[in-house]
Each structure stands twice: as C-alpha cells, then as structure tokens.
Design a protein that fits this description.
It contains 15 helices and 12 strands. It has 401 residues and is of the alpha/beta class. It folds into 2 domains: 2-145, P-loop containing nucleotide triphosphate hydrolases (Rossmann fold); 151-399, no CATH class. The two termini are 38 Å apart.
C-alpha cells in the first residue's frame, strides 16, 4: 500500500487547479460507486485528481488515487487492495484506467457488496460497458460520460474568462441577448477557428506545437489497443480501420456509400458497418440516422461525421470541407450537452434535436428555406457575431456545457 500512496502523493501534488471541467459540479460524488467514461485524452484522470486535491488535505490517508495499470496490480487484486485500504481507515478509493484490469467488473461488485462505507470512483474507456457481464453493475453504479472541451471551456482555458453554460432552451429563447452578453466580454470569432482545429482535447494547453501529433496518438491508441482488447479487432485489420477513418475524414456527409467505402479499404460491407459501430463507441465517429428509435446496430447510417472537428483536421490529407467541419462541431457540442441528434433528412434542416427542433447549418448567408415549415426551425450560421431572429451564430452552441 505504501507504494500506491507514494504514487498518489506524486499525482496529487502535480495536478493543476487553475481550471476544472464542468463535469466536476455535475457528478454526485456522494454516490457509492461512480463510473466516468470517455475517450483517451479528455481529462478523466485530471478530473479525479482535482477532486481529491480540492476536497482532501495533503497526506490524508482516507483517500487513495491509483491507476489499474500500475505495476502494483500485477501482484495484488483490486479486492485485496480495497480490503487493506478499508482496514487502515480508507473511505474514498479512486481507480483510474479500470478497463486495463482483467475481471474488473466482478471485483468492483465484490468491493461494493463488502464495504458499504467505501465510496469508489472509477474511470474507463468509452468502449467499456459498465452494465455488462456477471457483475451486473447496472443496479450499483452511476455512470457519467466525459466529452472533450466545449468551446466555452476552451475559452476559459485560453482567455481566463469564465462564462457559465447555457441550456439549449435558454439559448433558443433569447439568442440575441445571450450573444450580446458574450460579445461584451470577448470576441468569439477571434478564437473559434483555432478551437475547430485544435482545442477539443485538454492536452492542447500542455504542448500546443505538437497537438495534432498527440491527437493522432490518441487515435492510434484507441484502434491498436482499445479496439483490439475490447471489440476483438484483429491486429492485422488495424491499418484498414485507420484507412476507414481517413476516408471518413474526407467524405461529403450527404454522400454515404458504404459499398464504395468498403471497396476503397478492402473489407466486406458488413465488416465496414461493424467497424463504424465500434468507432462510434470509441468516440471517433458519429453515425446519424433519421430515426434513432428504429435503428439497428449494423444499419447503414444516413450521415457520417467524425466525432469532433479536431479529428477532421488531424486525419484528413486534404483541406477539410468547411461545411463538414461546421456540422461536426454542432453535433459534437449538442451531444456533449446530452441532446439527441438525428439526421434531418433531405427535405428539411440538417439535424433534428431531441425529436422536436430542427437546425440547418451554414455560412453567414444561410437562409431559412430548409426550415421554413418547421415550428421550431433554426439556422446555425458560421461567421456571424450576433443573432437575428432564429439565425444564431454557430459558435453560440459551444456554450451548452
């Protein structure tokens, strides 16, 4: 245990505290078993360490942060560690990278049932299924999904100006008032272009010069390590999955031809659809359908986007299509705030949100023709600073979380 506490002290002493993610205030930290999921690089480890730094004194042995891939666990089980921790007075156990430990779900269940006064927080890959398997954690664990930085959070990190998030309802009810309040504090368009290229993953603020290399590293890690370990991707097919991602980074969203994509990367159509499902689970792409209620796992999507604009700029070998970047941003920010996003279809706006609102995305001159017949139809327009009627600056949707 002393080795784990020594590592704990090292991690907590170095964690930065200038900025914290919005998820910090959304989690009910009093819950007995918490799971924080998200793709590599979005800041799950930092969030856990910051919570400890904020709520416990240095050297407090009632709390322990450890990573499941630490060498310590080659000789010790999670249950043994939790037992020893509780016996010495421990009350709050934080386990990072839980997906790297075999039989993690079974042992978490055992820990939960054995120690009723122990609070456990774990983090894991977006690919892991907390509710699967014999452990049946669904009745025990409260799960939170952690996205990358919103445009709002990025601006806080970049400018030091902290602006509280707005709900979608509040934004749509008074877009002009909201945008005016933001513009009084900063110029969003001054920073928006850079956020689209580099700003979604928090490590941008550590080494800006090698940001895209690090994003590529995240992609490689997810494909080569996580998909092979958790979705049985054959190692020999990792290059084809990378090729699939590059094709998707350059595809025009409304031209989804699965057969053509399959031929280009040399795999069967059903396998392509399976890989797309896995890539979406890993938060690398987003499959969009006109009706999520009737969608099957291997159904052909109506539109495909990468998960966030930074991935487009990193993976595309050509200059990205700005329309694709805009749509990717809007979907990413809405989904990050917990909204359901569906493809709007060819005869209406680009996206249907929560089944009731329709949003068309475009440049500063985009009109209302696509949403003319919609009771709740809006235009998200890039390149404008202020809202006019239901024409809202695209950047404003980056303040939802």
């Amino acid at each position: 245990m002393e080795k784990l506490f020594a590592l704990h002290d090292a991690y907590i002493s170095q964690v930065p505290m200038e900025f914290t993610r919005g998820l910090m205030d959304q989690i009910n930290w009093n819950t007995r078993l918490i799971g924080i999921k998200g793709p590599k690089g979005v800041g799950k480890s930092t969030l856990m360490q910051q919570y400890i730094k904020k709520n416990f004194k240095d050297g407090d042995r009632h709390v322990l942060y450890c990573s499941a891939d630490a060498g310590y666990f080659a000789e010790h089980t999670l249950v043994d560690t939790a037992t020893r921790f509780v016996q010495t007075g421990g009350t709050n156990l934080f386990i990072d990278e839980i997906h790297k430990y075999d039989n993690w779900s079974r042992e978490l269940k055992e820990i939960y049932d054995l120690f009723r006064n122990l609070r456990v927080v774990v983090s894991g890959s977006s690919l892991i299924r907390f509710n699967d398997g014999q452990a049946d954690l669904s009745r025990r664990l409260v799960e939170y999904e952690m996205p990358g930085l919103s445009f709002r959070e990025y601006l806080w990190f970049e400018t030091g100006i902290k602006i509280e998030p707005v709900t979608l309802g509040q934004l749509l009810d008074d877009p002009a008032g909201f945008c005016l309040g933001i513009v009084r504090q900063l110029r969003p368009l001054e920073h928006f272009g850079n956020y689209l290229k580099a700003g979604y993953y928090p490590f941008y603020f550590e080494e800006k010069g090698v940001y895209q290399n690090k994003v590529q590293g995240v992609v490689n890690y997810i494909i080569e390590s996580e998909l092979t370990a958790h979705r049985n991707l054959e190692v020999g097919n990792t290059r084809k999955v990378k090729a699939l991602l590059q094709v998707l980074s350059q595809i025009v969203p409304y031209q989804v031809d699965i057969s053509k994509i399959s031929r280009n990367i040399g795999i069967q159509r059903p396998t392509t659809l399976k890989y797309m499902k896995n890539l979406e689970e890993a938060k690398l792409i987003r499959r969009l359908f006109t009706n999520l209620e009737t969608t099957g796992d291997l159904q052909k999507p109506d539109k495909i986007l990468l998960d966030n604009p930074n991935l487009i700029y990193t993976l595309s070998s050509e200059k990205p299509e700005i329309g694709t970047v805009r749509e990717c941003f809007l979907c990413n920010q809405l989904a990050g705030a917990g909204h359901r996003v569906e493809y709007g279809g060819m005869k209406t706006g680009d996206f249907r949100i929560d089944g009731c609102r329709v949003i068309e995305v475009g440049g500063p001159d985009k009109g209302f023709s696509q949403v003319k017949g919609e009771k709740e139809g809006y235009v998200a327009a890039d390149g404008i600073e202020s809202a006019v009627f239901r024409k809202i600056p695209l950047w404003a949707f980056g303040f939802l979380y």
